[in-house]
Amino acid sequence: MDNQSPPRIATGDQPEWHGSTPDAWRALAQNDFSTLPSMAHLSMEQLTSFDIDPQLRWESNLVATKCASTSLHILLYRLGWRFLGRGLEQVRNRDMNESTISLVNHLLGGYELHLAQWANSSGFPDRLLKRCELTQDLSSERNFFLIGGYDPLHLSAHLSGPVDDVFEDHRDAKSGVLHLVGNNTETGSPRAILEIDQYACWYSELGRLGEFAGRANGSVDVYCKPVGWLGTYRLSPYTSVWHATSEEIHRLGFPMKYTSKTSEQWQDL
After folding, report:
1. What rounded mean pLDDT belongs to the chain?
2. Bridge-based pairing state of the strands 219-224 and 190-196
3. Residue 60 CB coordination number (10 Å)
4. Over the stretch 170-180, which tens digit does the pLDDT of each residue have?
5. Beta carbons within 8 Å of 10's beta carbon, 6+ residues apart
């Protein structure tokens, strides 16, 4: 029997995990999440009970896996959060008037603290996810993302596509192309467009813009050909992490002691 590679989609990953991720990025550009899946209608019984129809349980798990995987990419690579537990605790059930937060709340549908606890568990890429003390306890509930082991849905294996090419067949793709397009008419800060041929490793391409990032408050519009517009990114002067949100929202994903100009440990991202 021939060993066949699993099917890939626009993200370069498998559809069971990131089948909804391209649509989520496009929905952010349009600020319309109505066609995206959500965990809001999923009960813990649907997700875990063996007393219900196996097909229903499988379909429920698939929705949850897609919603969680997509949320992780959005939180890590759009908001630039590294302490996801801290950020998710602070924005849960709050109207932040920020489209990215609204999207994540739509996808997770009340399971934000479950994913926060998952992100605070051991065994994940330390340079992407940092553990922190959580203030809200889930001890009285079962955590779907942790039932059957620390990572039963294999979310961590599909976490790092934008910075690591987990599938070697993409590693020979050419780098992105940066176009300088002048200065912002209101602030005078430099503007650029980064065009990238593939979704895999796109955030790494953004992180290589050291010379441009050194300019005062420069902004980069990132376009990924298979997916579309990913956002307008800036390098945080406090965390040295690229993000496409306000500095206030970005810093929610960090403890206060890390949001200073001396946080050189973030430079490698």
Report:
1. 82
2. parallel
3. 22
4. 444 456 788 87
5. 22, 199, 226, 227
Q: What is the pLDDT of residue 211?
A: 66
For residue 245, the enclosing domain spans 170-266
Count Cβ atoms below 10 Å from residue 100 Cβ, excluding itself.
Answer: 21
Q: Identify the burial level of 15 via C-beta atoms within 10 angstroms of its C-beta, where 0-12 means exposed, 13-18 middle and 19 or more buried.
A: middle
Q: Are residues 59 and 90 in the same domain?
A: yes
What tokens does 181 get?
A: 């397009």
Angle at 232 between CA 103 and CA 191, to 5 degrees: 170
For residues 20 and 163, what is the distance between their CA atoms, to the nearest angstrom? 19
154 with 186, same domain: the answer is: no
SS3 for 196? strand
Quick check: 268 pLDDT over 50? no
Which amino acid, one-letter code, is at 264?
E
Compare 189 and 63 and report the one with higher pLDDT: 63
Q: 213 or 6: which carries more pLDDT confidence?
A: 213
